[in-house]
Amino acid sequence: MILKSAKENDSVPTKTLSNITRLLKNKAQTNNQNPEPSLLNEYKLEAQIGQGQFAQVRICRSKDNGQRFAMKIYQKSKLDQKTLNGIHREIAILKQLEHQNIVKIHNSLEDDKCIYLMLNFASSVSLAEFTKDRQLSEQQIKIIFKQLMLAVQYLHSKSISHRDIKLENILYSQQIVLIDFGFAIQTDKLCSVQCGTPNYMAPELLIKQPYNPFAADIWACGVVLHQLLVGEFPKNHKISNSICGPLQRILLSCLDKNAERRWTADKVVNELNQITYQ
Predict the structure, then answer these.
(1) Is 164 a catalytic residue?
(2) Which of 93, 111, 238, 272 has the fewest CB atoms within 10 Å, counting from its CB?
(3) Model pTM?
(4) Dihedral class, residue 40 (left if φ above 0, else alpha if ψ from -120 to 50, else beta)
């Protein structure tokens, strides 16, 4: 993919925004700690399962068929315009995606106080939690990492970069699911906005120069693989001496300090296809 150098645009195209569902006919009766708007009377809000700077995540259940969703609730009073634009961009991107290893959005609702994202719910934990007290076998790691790379390959084929790949944003049960697209962007240009999680940021992000977001995703995937293999971050951008075997070559390519030499998602998947069942 050839990227053009340009200032990053955080706005959302009008045509895309017009496709975002808005179901507001009555004002919501909310408070800042426990929003339960009347426009969502088709759903029953249940336990809170997550809390971030701008949003909380709660289980909700359809009163019609009992289906459970994860409802991500953003309170507009906490959002500036740039953050609000980012949420609209996240919704627009999620609505384009249909992949077994990527979180699925079922609906989005908005009123004058909150934005609500209805996401698929599964009884799973993050890879950070799952690997906290256990060491995975190399075969398990190969399978998990291949699923992650298939998700990234799919995103990149649509010119979408996640920009915050990390263990905490990967759910795991029977298979992995990549979540939290708050920093995601769809672009054919270099990016200038530094975002993500510091320990997963590629070296080129740290010098605050325009960067290829797709190459930065590959670096973050390499950090994830390093953690799965040895339980720690690469030190000084170098891989652990204890890592060997077929995954070593992939890891070295993902964590190449030169972004132009870093493998693409297609190349990583092709390599994984050769070793997954060895």
Answers:
(1) yes
(2) 238
(3) 0.83
(4) alpha
